[in-house]
Amino acid sequence: MGRSDYARIEAAIRYLDAHVTEQPSLADVAAHVGLSEFHFQRLFQRWAGISPKRFLQFATAAQARALLSRQVPLLQAAHEVGLSGPGRLHDLIVNVDAVTPGELRRGGAGLTIRYGLHDSPFGRCLVGVTPRGICALSFEHQGGEEELVQVLRARWPAATLERSDAETKALIDRIFSPERRDGPLAVHLRGTNFQLRVWEALLRIPEGAVSTYTQVAEAVGAPSASRAVGNAVGANTVAFLIPCHRVLRRTGAFGGYRWGVMRKRVMLAWEQVHSESASIFQRNDRWPAFPASS
Questions:
Q1: CATH number (domain holding residue 174)
Q2: 27 and 147, same structural domain?
């Protein structure tokens, strides 16, 4: 899906949000995004797998609150139970390799990061990879592609950056195309011990579910540290794979998101749609373990 297609999807959802009480027709939404009814329906069906009307049911704040009401037992049981089925990330295991304290101080000196810029279901994105795994996954928001590269360079100031779209395209296919998934994906993260603990907790939130900052704080053994958890969530540089988009405010509000609140809402609704068809639960003890860092 090209960036213009995602822009149309986002514009359609914004329109549906703004006119939900009016129950706009397919023709209304299609006209708003500059497509015929036929082409808009086909575009949306290809992207979400369901109709725009059905998708809207997943994209509302009321649905988010309903998810929150069901999330508590899911989060508590996350070490014991994993989802299995045709959904997007149910069988995707992420192996984490954290940087050592010495590597953290060196800022990537002696390290080569290959990166690429690609289309995704959520718009244009950058993926960066080291020999040890994916070190960056971010989405174009307000600053464009150049800002994505600048953020990567700031995160690894002493590393050598090499653009390699051909190499990184295979990673994008594995992340967003379940039929091309062929084993665990490794991620290479730099962060404090507390950040790593928070990111580990995020990995334990099943696809199609959400949690609150308070619940994540409790999961990492720091129940009074919701604000610090929020900072750690915001510091995640591997979007979607480390699912910071699954954390909401206690009220069910979506809160902020580095790559745009609407993109966060779209991600959650997209995951809900793709996890809805999963009907088999099975035990899964292969949750990632984080080595000690700084």
A1: 1.10.10.10
A2: no
- By the 8 A CB rule, do 24 and 15 touch? yes
pLDDT digits (tens, 9 = 90+) for 105-128: 888 899 999 999 999 989 999 999
Q: Quote the DSSP letter at residue 290.
A: P
- In terms of domains, do 114 and 103 share one? yes
- Please identify every residue annotated as catalytic: 244
Task: Please state, in angstroms and rounded to a whole number, the distance separating the CA atoms of residues 61 and 140.
Answer: 24
Residues with Cβ < 8 Å from 257, sequence gap 6 or more?
Answer: 244, 245, 263, 264
User: Which domain range does residue 21 map to?
Assistant: 3-58
What's the pTM value of the predicted model, to 2 decimals? 0.76
Q: How far apart are CA 20 and CA 228, in angstroms?
A: 35
Given the structure tokens 């040890």, which residue do they identify?
A: 132
Cβ proximity of 12 and 37 under 8 Å: no
Same domain for 105 and 38? no
Tell me how long the chain is.
294
Label each residue of 65-126 as H, E or C: HHHHHHHHHHHHCCCCEEEECCCCCCCCCEEEEECCHHHHHHCCCCCEEEEEEECCCCCCEE
Measured on CA atoms in the order 9, 14, 20, 23, is the torsion positive or negative?
Answer: negative
Nearest-Å Rg of the Cα atoms of the chain is 19
The pLDDT tens digits for 29-73 are 999 999 999 999 999 888 877 788 777 666 655 556 565 565 544
Number of domains in the chain: 2
Helix (H) or strand (E) segment spanning residue 215? helix 213-219
